[in-house]
């Protein structure tokens, strides 16, 4: 006998505009999904069923509770959800204050408490209690799932499915295992599940969403593609990312223009499974970054958010190395414009690292490229992979290109200069604020880092980063970089706040031309404790 259709995962509230909203769901069988009178048929990929319902006609600045209907039956809220308020869609309103909460690096689930208090769950429970101001959106900027550092639950699933000794050991292997990983990450904690149903969420991947140090170098790519299991891993990683994360980042207009989305829905209309289509797309996206774009930009009033793909869009050949390929760099250059009050550039990898680490990565890139000969290049590549030296600083030409773009905006050469320019990042497992000190511009340029949501840095690595953040530690690696003929960076900056090593979430608060950032640390009992705050714009800007 056919049972009722159920939600596997979701609802997730994704892109929200002044009158529109996107609600994402995964169901246990094909069905029609309804939200506030709008409907969408599911599509199927590798036996999993998904839908994105596009709601239109909402009032700007409104708060609208919603239910999710599967084939006409209410499936959300589920029984037992009385501990949380109804899920709502909160649309944007012209001129309203903007609050963008963000973080990265969340290990989940963590039933044993190994990784400390969950900042995302604490944030959810505070909102559920109607305490504090509501965020305009939540930005999850990297390592939403860990495909190569497994918890007990996903490991048990893999062992039952393919045995403990099959390759890759203690890593997910394909789309099916990625799908289970997302379910564990976003369903097991009821507070987090409710949060994602009621706060507009935007994401970008980092390395652990695929594999540690993903695309660190041309040599790394040659090594992983030589592994017999890598094709299923990369197609599963990018294909599942496209479904679980990327599609919801897009506006309805952008999604309508997505050729793969149209093809997948066409297959669904015929009752088919689009797994092969998604796999082909994912492999093509990995091998030729110019064939796809994961980056995107959205405006929240007079604040522009640019979310940069600093992983899959890398140009890594035997002859060239860049954080962004030529097509992606041209796109970023076009997005970096003034005539807005604030410019926020989100990159999972910090653009401005502690100076000692920046100089070390400068030096390593030059040595790995042959500045100290072939033997030095082999040594440099080993150090690069062992020490994770693959941030913006390890892509010198890309770093300089972005410095030129941001400097032009801050100097008012691309329209009216904004009141602030800030990079938002995670990845490094500690939080800090860095400020550009030279060349000076009327517009302050900052680096805001918030990491992790839940995955604190281990002892010896924490100690090493504390040392790297201290004043006076940068000169040694700057000397080495100079010996490798690396020019001085085009910017000077210093850490003014931090580092802090707790599990944290940060919020950018924007009111007109005033911008501030607040960091909050997760504490016992799903609490958040204010850790620090700082102004990102000049007073009276």
From TrEMBL:
Source organism, top-level taxon: Bacteria
Any coiled-coil regions, as ranges: none
InterPro entries in the cross-refs: DUF7800, Metallo-depent_PP-like, PhoD-like_MPP, PhoD-like_sf
SUPFAM superfamilies xrefs: Metallo-dependent phosphatases
PhoD-like phosphatase metallophosphatase domain mapped to chain residues: 126-455
Transmembrane segments: none
The DUF7800 domain, residue ranges: 4-89
Gene3D superfamilies: PhoD-like phosphatase
Protein's recorded name: PhoD-like phosphatase
Organism from which the protein derives: Thermomonospora umbrina
């Amino acid at each position: 006998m056919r049972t009722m259709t159920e939600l596997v995962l979701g609802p997730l509230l994704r892109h929200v505009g002044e009158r529109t909203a996107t609600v994402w769901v995964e169901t246990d069988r094909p069905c029609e999904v309804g939200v506030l009178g709008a409907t969408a048929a599911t599509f199927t990929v590798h036996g999993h069923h998904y839908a994105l319902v596009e709601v239109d006609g909402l009032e700007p600045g409104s708060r609208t509770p919603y239910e999710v209907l599967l084939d006409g039956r209410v499936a959300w809220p589920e029984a037992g959800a009385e501990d949380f308020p109804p899920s709502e869609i909160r649309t944007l309103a012209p001129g309203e204050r903007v609050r963008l909460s963000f973080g990265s690096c969340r290990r989940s689930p963590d039933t044993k408490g190994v990784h400390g208090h969950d900042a995302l769950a604490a944030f959810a429970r505070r909102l559920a209690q109607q305490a504090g101001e509501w965020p305009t959106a939540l930005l999850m900027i990297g390592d939403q799932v860990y495909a190569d550092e497994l918890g007990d639950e996903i490991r048990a699933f893999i062992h039952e499915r393919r045995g403990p000794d099959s390759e890759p050991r203690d890593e997910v292997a394909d789309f099916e295992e990625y799908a289970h990983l997302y379910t564990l990450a976003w369903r097991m904690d009821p507070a987090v599940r409710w949060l994602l149903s009621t706060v507009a969420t935007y994401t970008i991947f980092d390395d652990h969403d695929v594999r540690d140090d993903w695309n660190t170098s041309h040599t790394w790519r040659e090594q992983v593609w030589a592994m017999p299991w890598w094709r299923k891993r990369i197609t599963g990683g990018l294909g599942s990312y496209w479904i679980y994360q990327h599609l919801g980042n897009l506006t309805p207009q952008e999604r309508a223009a997505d050729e793969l989305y149209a093809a997948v829905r066409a297959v669904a209309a015929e009752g088919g499974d689009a797994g092969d289509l998604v796999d082909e797309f994912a492999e093509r996206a990995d091998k030729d970054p110019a064939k796809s774009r994961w980056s995107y930009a959205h405006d929240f009033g007079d604040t522009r958010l640019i979310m940069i793909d600093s992983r899959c869009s890398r140009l890594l050949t035997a002859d060239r190395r860049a954080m962004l390929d030529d097509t992606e760099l041209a796109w970023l250059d076009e997005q970096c414009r003034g005539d807005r009050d604030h410019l926020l550039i989100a990159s999972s990898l910090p653009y401005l690292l502690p100076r000692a680490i920046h100089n070390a990565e400068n030096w390593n890139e030059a040595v790995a490229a042959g500045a100290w000969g072939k033997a030095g290049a082999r040594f440099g590549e080993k150090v690069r992979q062992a020490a994770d030296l693959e941030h913006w600083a390890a892509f010198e030409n890309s770093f300089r290109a972005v410095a030129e773009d941001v400097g032009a905006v801050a100097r008012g050469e691309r329209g009216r200069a904004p009141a602030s320019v800030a990079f938002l990042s995670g990845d490094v497992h500690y939080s800090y604020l860095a400020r550009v000190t030279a060349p000076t511009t009327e517009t302050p340029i900052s680096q805001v880092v918030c990491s992790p949501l839940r995955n604190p840095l281990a002892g010896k690595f924490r100690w090493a980063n504390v040392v790297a953040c201290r004043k006076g530690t940068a000169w040694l690696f700057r000397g080495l970089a100079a010996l490798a003929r690396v020019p001085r960076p085009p910017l000077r900056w210093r850490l003014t706040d931090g580092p802090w090593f707790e599990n944290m979430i940060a919020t950018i608060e924007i009111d007109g031309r005033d911008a501030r950032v607040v960091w909050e640390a997760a504490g016992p009992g799903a609490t958040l404790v204010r850790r620090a705050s700082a102004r990102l714009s000049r007073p009276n800007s």
